[in-house]
């Protein structure tokens, strides 16, 4: 008796450890209610920063009322939402409308969680094809983008002036590196970005990777090595700080906001913060190796309709989704989120209202979905190897060539 | 009722004893349900996850094929496995040694009850009071390669700055330093209360016999603290094995796995990617549980031997 009680005690204490992986079926139970109840429609979004008094939530309520339904909205942290959505689908209580980060769409589609736009009769014809591609897998479309964001280079005018660099001359990698060299010679810091070992780092690396002409299916191509060598050399020569290895896009922005950096690779969403920095800034597209705008990855969410047992619910979900993505509402939403719209018509309206957005509209036009080219769920596996590779090269534990060769063989094995 | 009484009364009062048993079971039920729902079932699910080949599709739709120990084999064959195991052992071992010895030194120091000792002791509890996310973020900020306060200090005294979090050779050391700092208060508090329980007349007797303070520590304090030390170390071991937040916030297990332990690796497999790999993630988690369990059983065994 004493022994067994002790063993139980030990098991109980040690199973604290299990918390790390224990996959809890209970965590989504609070969202279970309502998905089959009368006229209540559940919407999940990754914008927890908006509360019930925000324009976003008011729009959700209004679109629900217009469709003859009551909307119950839950905002989740974006990193949390993928697992929440998978667990909810496992328990059979998915929300009616799920707004989710675009590279996750193919994972959820692969899991059979999402309906296609053919099932729900959602009209996606007005959406720019390069943005829609992130939600397409094997010729089927699994949602509609609510808007898009992407990366470009912010620059600090004062720092560039002091170093006698004209941002208009930065057209390709050579001119960019030359500009960084002048900035460093003038005693300021060159460029900051985020090369952290997560998806965020891959997102930041892709404009350079794609800008070299490299392809995600061949991580160790000569072009890919060139792009990683560009980053590695910047670190070696002190044009970029060593802290990029640990920078998120937010901490990298904080470095830029300190006023000591000439350039920062960052996204549309920082525009509002850029105005608060207190120095004059400008934005140029990320140059590709040979010149011209590099394809940056598209960020931003898709509005999707998860599979329901009761297919009769799709009609109302479709109305809600069309309402959210309609021209007029998309303009409001994308302005609130600081996104670029997904349709040409709304983009034109945005630029008319705020000419500063022009460079972003162009960047979004050149951008590419991470899961595009029918990569789908192969992308996350490739991306993981890619961030492992640039972390290895930037930290100096491997040469760019060795790091990418290892990454390619690991990615090939993982995606076989 | 005492055991003797039951034995004597048993033949005559059998029915009543049975009803007493029912009542006993009734009292046990909540605990049993609690244990099953919150400990046994998650453990079983974790084991189940680790023995099936789950894809995102079969996770949602069901029907993941049983794959035996394939996930474990895949995990062991993974190039991350041996480094992660080494890091887990080094992280746990080094953290424990420093936490325990510094905690012990401070406990003995504060046991002398000088003026201000209570205030100073309270100060040492600060790491314990802060939420882990706050202290880890602060460490991460202090250890920043370019703008961190530690490197500024190093520069001020003419030492080359160190890439604490971004160099493969320093990342593990950095997270260990932060973890030791966070773990000291726990060791200090438990060992300090253990010291209070040692009767002062033993020290007086030792002093009368001419023992030096060094001898008093090794011959009196240390042996008498052994049970407390054992439980402190065991709890410390379990806490340290599963440390996740500090490492994740400070380095994400990087650069390239150089500070990855089983805890962060398990998280990374299950949740750190757009495409979760629940099977291997659960397998790593289970290995971690087994490691902790082995030490737990060792502890129970040594304790029983000490008692008998």
Write structural notes for this entry.
The complex is a heterodimer of chains A (416) and B (308). Chain A has 416 residues and is α/β, with parallel strands linked by helices. Chain A folds into two domains: 38-145 and 301-338, D-Maltodextrin-Binding Protein, domain 2; 151-298 and 372-415, D-Maltodextrin-Binding Protein, domain 2. Chain A is 46% helix and 12% strand. Chain A has 18 helices and eleven strands. Chain B has 308 residues and is mostly helical. Chain B folds into two domains: 1-34; 78-272, MetI-like (MetI-like fold, Orthogonal Bundle), CATH 1.10.3720. Chain B is 74% helix and 0% strand. Chain B is built from 16 helices and no strands. Chain B has helices spanning 3-9, 14-50, 56-61, 70-77, 81-110, 117-124, 126-129, 132-142, 149-156, 171-196, 200-208, 213-224, 226-241, 245-251, 262-271, 278-307. At the A-B interface, helix 1, helix 3, helix 4 and helix 17 of A face helix 2, helix 3, helix 15 and helix 16 of B.
In short:
Chain A is of the alpha/beta class and 416 residues long.
Summarize the helices and strands and which ones pair or pack:
The complex is a heterodimer of chains A (416) and B (308).
Chain A: H1 2-14, E1 40-45, H2 55-66, E2 70-75, H3 78-90, E3 97-101, H4 102-110, H5 117-120, H6 129-132, E4 136-137, E5 140-141, E6 144-145, E7 151-156, H7 157-162, H8 173-185, E8 189-192, H9 199-211, H10 222-236, H11 249-257, E9 261-267, H12 271-274, E10 281-284, E11 301-304, H13 314-325, H14 327-337, H15 344-353, H16 358-366, H17 378-394, H18 400-415
Parallel strand pairs in A: 1-2, 1-3, 8-9
Antiparallel strand pairs in A: 3-11, 4-5, 6-11, 7-9, 7-10
Helix pairs in contact in A: 2-13, 9-10, 9-17, 14-15, 17-18
Chain B: H1 3-9, H2 14-50, H3 56-61, H4 70-77, H5 81-110, H6 117-124, H7 126-129, H8 132-142, H9 149-156, H10 171-196, H11 200-208, H12 213-224, H13 226-241, H14 245-251, H15 262-271, H16 278-307
